[in-house]
Specification:
5 strands, alpha/beta, 55% helix, globular, Rossmann fold
């Protein structure tokens, strides 16, 4: 029996949950033969909001953006490296904008059949609820979403295969 999906997208954000999602997406791709995609979105929308709120001045924004781009490249390279260890090719991309909006565009443009994201964070305030990008992705993409939980178990499975 073939899998009900051909293209898997894993959303990277640098968190531990994102790492678990990466490992699980690699395992899914290996097990099913699906193509693997990885996307890191630099949240320039939030960065712009920080400038408007005078948390950063414009010159600091540019410097911080370069640091975010370096982080994004590091996380994407890590995904490529661990995928290669399992003999899985991965198509990666670094985007800028609102993470949920950019992921939605990528899903539609690339006919993604399944999105894999890290565990949703515990929401402690209404403000956090409004800003939760993973939650927004979960609700907005037109494909099934797998939420990778229990990173210790995923890590063990990843090491065994």
């Amino acid at each position: 029996m073939s899998a009900p999906f051909d293209d898997i997208l894993v959303y990277l954000d640098g968190s531990e949950g994102s790492m678990a999602a990466s490992m699980y997406a690699i395992l899914l791709a290996k097990e099913t033969g699906a193509r693997l995609h990885g996307v890191y979105v630099i949240n320039t929308k939030a960065l712009g909001d920080l400038v408007k709120a005078h948390v950063f001045i414009s010159s600091e924004r540019a410097e911080f953006l370069e640091e975010l781009k370096a982080d994004a490249r590091r996380h994407v390279r890590h995904l490529e490296k661990i995928a290669a260890k399992k003999n899985i090719a991965v198509e990666t991309e670094i985007l800028e904008g609102s993470p949920s909006a950019e992921v939605l565009k990528y899903v539609r443009a690339n006919s993604i059949d399944m999105l894999v994201i890290g565990q949703l964070n515990m929401i402690r305030s209404r403000r956090e609820e409004l800003a939760n990008e993973n939650e927004r992705m979960l609700r907005s993409v037109p494909c099934p979403v797998f939420v990778a939980k229990d990173s210790d178990e995923i890590w063990n499975m990843f090491e065994e295969i």
